[in-house]
């Protein structure tokens, strides 16, 4: 039980809960927006062809009332929500693939030489200059 509590604390500390809560809140707000779109714009347009709007379309079978119009509107609501989630995920994956491609294309900058390496490079260059100067003097003599 103690290990389970430790894992739960680590899970919460990662921030996953906060990200998930933000997603739920935004999803709820977006759901209200889509419902408003359906109730106030799409349903009246579709309901133009039926008395009382599409939400009011129903069939009575024996004693049961089958609300076909409400079901159709729920299907349209689902399709709109699914399309938006698909487009968001497609945009995110496209963005991430472009970022990954840019990272692969840009070569990593070489590390800056340390002070010791700089001094050793200067010594090497001075020795090369002296050696080439001595060779030139020997050839002229």
Explain what the structure shows.
The protein has 141 residues and is mainly alpha-helical. It has one domain: Non-ribosomal Peptide Synthetase Peptidyl Carrier Protein, Chain A, CATH 1.10.1200. It has helices at 2-13, 16-47, 68-105, 115-140, and strands at 59-61, 64-66. It has a two-stranded antiparallel sheet with strand order 1-2. Strand 1 (59-61) and strand 2 (64-66) form a beta hairpin. Helix 2 packs across helix 3. It is elongated. The model has no long low-confidence stretch (mean pLDDT 79).
Q: Which helices and strands occur, and which strands form pairs?
A:
Elements: H1 2-13, H2 16-47, E1 59-61, E2 64-66, H3 68-105, H4 115-140
Antiparallel strand pairs: 1-2
Helix pairs in contact: 2-3
Features of the shown structure:
4 helices, mainly alpha, 77% helix, Non-ribosomal Peptide Synthetase Peptidyl Carrier Protein, Chain A, elongated, 141 residues, two-stranded antiparallel sheet
